[in-house]
Structure prediction request, 86 residues.
Amino acid sequence: MTRRVYAATIATHLTDAGHTNSDTGPAWTPGFRVAQASPYTTRIWHDGPDEQQHLDRYARALRWLGYVVTAEHPDGRRPRIRATHR
Prediction:
């Protein structure tokens, strides 16, 4: 059965792994951004240069914690990853 995945928890995991959150701090900095897509899914983007390399690093960090991570490349939109948990 799928377990709930919270955007705030994913953000905490990525921050604890040493990645920068682009939504925090007094000024914008390159880093990840997380959004709740459903009760069981979050989506993660990288705001800044080297987007794909950073998404790959986020995916590795989340997989190590037991999340199921899938790359998404919607037509005409920026690449992102989706995280769920079984």
Observations:
- The mean pLDDT is 94.
- The two ends are 6 Å apart (CA to CA).
- Residues 21 and 32 are 5 Å apart (CA to CA).
